[in-house]
Amino acid sequence: MEIEMNRIALALAVTLSLALPAAAQSLTVLLPSLSFPTEPVTPSTKGCEAPAAGTTCQLPE
User: Fold this and answer.
1) How far apart are the first and last CA of the chain?
2) What are phi and psi of 58, to 5 degrees?
3) Which residues in the chain land under pLDDT 50?
4) Which helix (H) or strand (E) holds 16?
5) Nearest to 11 by CA among 38, 3, 33, 23
6) Are 23 and 33 a contacting pair, CB within 8 Å?
7) Which of 11, 24, 57, 61 could form a disulfide with 48 if both were Cys (CB 3.0 to 4.6 A apart)?
8) Which domain of life is it from (predicted)?
């Protein structure tokens, strides 16, 4: 029983020593920074067959 406890304690110590450097980093290092466009987004009309005077388009089948 004592040998098993020593093994568990050693495994826990090794695990914590490997995990500490990753836990010490801040979230700004670990996560990518996201940026969003500020200009208005327009929908794509690629593949649409729209009449010249219409504002909506029908996708070809």
Assistant:
1) 72
2) -110, 130
3) none
4) helix 2-24
5) 3
6) no
7) 57
8) Bacteria
Rounded to whole angstroms, the Cα distance separating 24 from 31 reads 14
Q: Any idea of the CA torsion for 38, 31, 25, 21, to the nearest 10 degrees?
A: -160
The identity of residue 17, as a single letter, is: S
Rg (CA), the chain: 29
- Torsion, CA 19, CA 25, CA 30, CA 32, rounded to 10: 180
Confidence (pTM): 0.35
Residue type, position 43, single letter: P
Cα 26 from Cα 12, distance rounded (Å): 23
3-13: pLDDT as tens digits = 888 899 999 99
Q: What tokens were used for 53?
A: 């005077």
